[in-house]
Structures are given as structure tokens and as C-alpha cells.
Amino acid sequence: MTDGHEAAPQVRPARPFFSSGPCAKRPGWTPQNLTDAALARSHRSKIGKAKLAEVIDRSRQLLGLPDDYRLAIVPASDTGAIEMALWSLLGARGVDVLAWESFGQAWVTDVVKQLKLADVRTLTADYGRLPDLGQVSPDRDTVFTWNGTTSGVRVPDGDWIAADRAGLTLCDATSAVFAQPLPWDKIDVATWSWQKVMGGEAAHGMLVLSPRAVERLESYTPPWPLPKIFRMTKGGKLIEGLFKGETINTPSMLAVEDAIDGLRWAESIGGMPALRARADANLAAIADWVASRPWVDFLAIDPATRSNTSICLTLTDPALTALDSAAQAAVPKAIAALLEKEGVALDINGYRDAPPGLRIWGGATVETSDIQALLPWIDWAYRQVMADRAVAA
User: Fold this and answer.
1) What is the spatial order of strands in the sheet that 296-298 belongs to?
2) Which of 57, 229, 300, 370 is deepest in the core (most CB within 10 A)?
3) Which of 324, 276, 298, 287 has its CA nearest to residue 151?
4) Which residues contact residue 10 at a Cβ distance below 8 angstroms, ignoring those fewer than 6 apart?
5) Band of the pLDDT at 4, cuts 50, 70, 90?
6) Domain map of the chain by residue range?
């Protein structure tokens, strides 16, 4: 018992790491896994280049990228990778930008307010929903997130993308790749970061280019100046070394080693099918729990669009929904704080710009047994917080 409240659950998650970025390290990870890192060595040395190429090669094989797609390590995490693509590729034709949460809205801001393109359509939806994908034009470039990290809403598939499209598709896939099937024939640009599904360290991003994207790079010159870290061509030709591990800036070789460790782990458990199955099992455990709780639901309205990585929940108790927004936000914040104090769950309050709620990372590095152990603790914390509110009232 704690302060007159009911007794807490007895079983605790073995690992309380449910943050949506940086995410949980892979099971069994320790700093000793990084002892082979090429520390104090140049990233341009033979060993440095080999390590960087290994990340590219293992990522390519694990994801099953087509042979004619390029893959590079680029600066500044997923944000740097998608910005690199936006600033280098857009402007050749009209653009449809999709947004249904904060990161998608950031790319809308980039395209509309920073690049200031003349022909832009923004297709938006509130948190919990998708825009009308049927409005996307195959004659225009399309910018979208595959999985909305802050809303827990993902596109269900790539059927809405035309196979014979004239425009390019630019996909921020950072919280989807390695956990959700991506139809590479429908994607011309994809970006992600190491600190999401594979539980790596931050600072570096990955950038995939289809042959159509390469053709655009080599045939189109944007009317604005490009910073050095965005430049992928020289003299009108693709800088091929970038896609062999010759990075634009100096990478952390410790983070590189950690990325290699995560990729090797993924291979050891069975590759993409195993990674997706682990994330799906985490979502299923939460779905079963939500189905029997009248006070909580998924933020994603349509079950087909529910993320299996950034799993976002909203509190539906009428006693809360009748309150003003500040009071509503205080409850999940208090739940998250109580669970963090207990050492049971770290960083599960909803994203600051999202509707009030909880966000539980369910990517492949999280054990389903830890999700299952966490859920009774959320029940407990919810009751404590609501009891305290009743007393205060």
C-alpha cells in the first residue's frame, strides 16, 4: 500500500524503456557490445569505411531493397535525411504534402513557408485520422510520413500510390521501417533514423533513393542554394561515394558500431518477419487490454491505421472529457510521472502537441512480456490519479 492507496502490482517490466525516441536498446544489449568500434580512427580509414559500408549493406539486405535503389548514411538523423530530400528534389512539379500529426506538419511548414513553392496542396487530418488518400495526384510529388510517430496513425498500405505515377513519393518512414512492410516499388525516397525501431543512437539518418529519384537529382537543379550537407550531386551527376559510406560529415563511430550491433541482432532473430512479428505482438497485447477498459482507447480511429510502434492512447473517461484541455492533459501526465517514479515506465506521456494521452513504444526491441507487465501498472496508476483528483475536488 502507498499513502492509503491500493497495493501496486507485483510484477514489474524487466526493462521500463518505452520511449518513442530514442527507443529501447535491443534485448541483451550492454556497452560491451560496442568494444569493436573503430574509435580514434578516421571514418575515411579502411576500417572506418568498412564499418559505414556494413551499416548500408546490412540495412539493404534486411529491408530487401531493390538492387537499383541507393542507400546512404546522412547527417542529422531522420530530420536531416528528409530535409535533404525536400530541398534537393522538390520544385520540379506540383507537390501534395500530407500531414496528420506534428512531424508531417513540420514538412508542410518546410515546403510552404521555407521553400515557398508556388504549387502546393496540403492534405491534412486531425490527430487520430488520415487525410483522404484518394485526393493524392499521381502527377504531383507527394510528401508524407508512413507512420505518424506522435499520433500513432499509419497509412494501411501503399495501394493509394499509383504504380505509373509521374511524380516522386518522398516518405518519412522513421517509425515504420523495420516494423511495417514498405512497398519499395511505391516509394522513391525513404528516410529513417537509427534511434527508432532498431534502438540505435541518434545523430545519423538513412536515405533511400529510387532510380526515378536519382534521375530527378541529375536532371533538375533547385533555384535555391543548397548547404553542403544537402548536396548529393556534383557537375550534374550523383556523388556515388555517398552511397558507399563516404559520408558528408564526420559520423560517430561509436553510434555506427551500435547500428551494426542492432542489425546483426535483427538478422539473428529471423530478419524482417521476426521484427514485424515482435511489434505486432506488442500492439496486440495493448489492443486486448484496451478492449476491456472503458476509460481508454486508441487515438487512431480506424483499427487498420493503428501503429505497432508509436502506440498512442487517449483517455475516454467522461469525468475527464468534460474538463478543459489543461485538466485533461494533467491526468496522463500524472500517470506517466507516477509510473516513472515507480521505475516501471519511462517517457510514456503523450507528445506535447498531440491530444492528451499516453504513448507507448512497441517497436521490435521491446519485449511483449514487458508490455504485458506494464499494463496492470497503468490500471493502478490511473486509479491512483483519479482517486487523488476526487479527494482534491
Assistant:
1) 296-298, 310-315, 358-361
2) 300
3) 298
4) none
5) low
6) 31-267, 270-392
**Three-state DSSP class for residue 79:** helix
Radius of gyration of the chain, Cα coordinates, nearest whole angstrom:
22
Answer CATH for 270-392 from 3.40.50.720, 3.40.50.2300, 1.10.357.10, 3.90.1150.10: 3.90.1150.10
Inter-CA distances, 113 with 21, 86, 105, 106, Å? 27, 13, 11, 10
Q: At what angle do helices 253-269 and 272-291 cross, to 10 degrees?
A: 80
- Read off the pLDDT of residues 183-208 as tens digits, 9 standing for 90 and up: 999 999 999 999 999 999 989 999 99
How far is the C-alpha of 173 from the C-alpha of 170, rounded, in Å? 9
Q: Specify the CATH number for 31-267; select among 3.40.50.1370, 3.40.640.10, 3.40.50.1380, 3.40.50.300.
A: 3.40.640.10
pLDDT at 1 exceeding the cut of 50 = no
pLDDT tens track for 302-350: 999 999 999 999 999 998 888 888 888 999 999 999 999 999 999 999 9
Rounded distance between C-alpha atoms, residue 121 and residue 140, angstroms: 10
Mean pLDDT of 369-374: 98
Residues 6+ apart with CB under 8 A from 264: 58
